[in-house]
Amino acid sequence: NDDYLRKQDADAQGGAEFSYEVILPEFLYHSNKIEGSTFTLDQIETLYVRNKVTGTILDDIIETKNSFKMFDRMVDTLGVELTPELLIEFETILHKGTTMQPTVKA
């Protein structure tokens, strides 16, 4: 009985990891496309898996790599109230190091 429960738990965790791996590229492709990204789904998958990409604008590359971090942060905050501060945090993560990076107000 305990072995069965452990196997179910392991399958559930593997299923969650598999879902994450499937959802991440699709989510980022559509999300970035709305923002005007030139990335194809294949390029996003290659960037995620191999950390390589060709023929793309530097800002797109940086923003797409930042998208991986932002997606992880979004997953980490599931169930947390969506506040203006959290939205600003997501936006800051997304645009860090790009020409769209928010400037600090003095």
Structure description:
By secondary structure, the protein is mainly α. The protein contains four helices and no strands. The chain is globular, with a radius of gyration of 17 Å. The model is unreliable at 1-8 (pLDDT under 50).
User: What's the mean pLDDT score?
Assistant: 80
Q: What separation lies between the terminal Cα atoms?
A: 62 Å
Number of helices: 4
Beta-strand share of residues: under 5%
Largest sheet: none
Q: What structural category characterises the helix and strand content? A: mainly alpha
Shape: globular
- Rg from C-alpha positions? 17 Å
Helicity, in percent? 55-70%
> Could you tell me the number of beta strands?
0
Strand and helix order: HHHH
Low-pLDDT parts are 1-8
Explain briefly what this protein structure is.
With 106 residues, the chain is mainly alpha-helical.
Give the key terms:
about 110 residues; 4 helices; globular; mainly alpha
Question: Which helices and strands appear, and what pairs or packs with what?
Answer:
Layout: H1 2-34, H2 41-50, H3 58-76, H4 84-95
Helix pairs in contact: 1-2, 3-4
